[in-house]
Amino acid sequence: KNEVEQSPQNLTAQEGEFITINCSYSVGISALHWLQQHPGGGIVSLFMLSSGKKKHGRLIATINIQEKHSSLHITASHPRDSAVYICAVEGGSEKLVFGKGMKLTVNP
Amino acid sequence: EPEVTQTPSHQVTQMGQEVILRCVPISNHLYFYWYRQILGQKVEFLVSFYNNEISEKSEIFDDQFSVERPDGSNFTLKIRSTKLEDSAMYFCASAQGAVYEQYFGPGTRLTVT
């Protein structure tokens, strides 16, 4: 059974700061998902990756398969980035295993 | 941009009653999922559905639960006899393929009293 750990659990930042959110998992996977959950509860998919690095706007996601670790970076953070960021992995089946999420608050 | 929709947004029901949560996945997607999130806890997988049958289910998805794609567009989750511990946010998701990006609906908040 895959265990997904995220760190930190909470983070408060000032607008403009560079933010890194970490995710580690215990068993080999076929893909890792980064999701964003807004205060109202809705979930948005940010990235799905199985190797290397992906970039979308101010967001960058990287994964190291050997280390079983992924990071999500937010450059030039903004208050609208305030949300819970969730890492989820899938390995060999369609079932997603979720981390607990990291609550990010960006203050103006 | 196409999106997954869910109805109702909030459902309140009494313990022991049956509820049906509805989802309309993105039209060209082939894989469908239900997840739940109990307040303050992490999201949990319930079931995946492909080619008109369940492809995988979790331990949570017991005989009280069933899923159906009744008309080729809707995807429903039925809970036969609700319990207090079924109170949660239920999310539907769909994807083009098995290891593809999943698109989530806005969720249905189920409250069992």
Distinctive features:
heterodimer; A: 108 residues; mainly beta; six-stranded mixed beta sheet; five-stranded antiparallel beta sheet; 11 strands; B: 113 residues; seven-stranded mixed beta sheet; four-stranded antiparallel beta sheet; 0% helix; globular
Task: Summarize the model shown.
Chain A has 108 residues and is mainly β. Chain A has strands at residues 4-7, 10-14, 19-25, 31-37, 43-49, 52-56, 59-64, 69-74, 83-90, 97-98, 102-107. The model of chain B has no long low-confidence stretch (mean pLDDT 94).
Strand residue content of chain B: over 45%
| Overall 3D shape of chain A | globular
Number of helices of chain A: 0
Quaternary:
heterodimer
Number of strands of chain A: 11
Question: Could you characterize what this model shows?
Answer:
The complex is a heterodimer of chains A (108) and B (113). Chain A is an all-beta fold. Chain A is 0% helix and 58% strand. Chain A contains no helices and eleven strands. In chain A, the strands form two sheets. In chain A, strands 2, 4, 5, 9, 10 and 11 form a six-stranded mixed β-sheet that branches. A five-stranded antiparallel β-sheet of chain A has the order 1-3-8-7-6, with no helix packed on it. Chain A is globular. The mean pLDDT of chain A is 93. With 113 residues, chain B is mostly beta strands. Helices cover 0% and strands 50% of the residues of chain B. Chain B is built from no helices and eleven strands. In chain B, strands 2, 4, 5, 6, 9, 10 and 11 form a seven-stranded mixed β-sheet that branches. Chain B has a four-stranded antiparallel β-sheet with strand order 1-3-8-7, with no helix packed on it. Chain B starts with a strand and ends with a strand. The A-B interface holds A 30-31, 33, 35, 40-45, 48, 50, 86, 88, 90, 93-101 and B 31, 33, 35, 37, 41-45, 48, 50, 55-56, 58, 89, 91, 98-104, 106-107, 109.
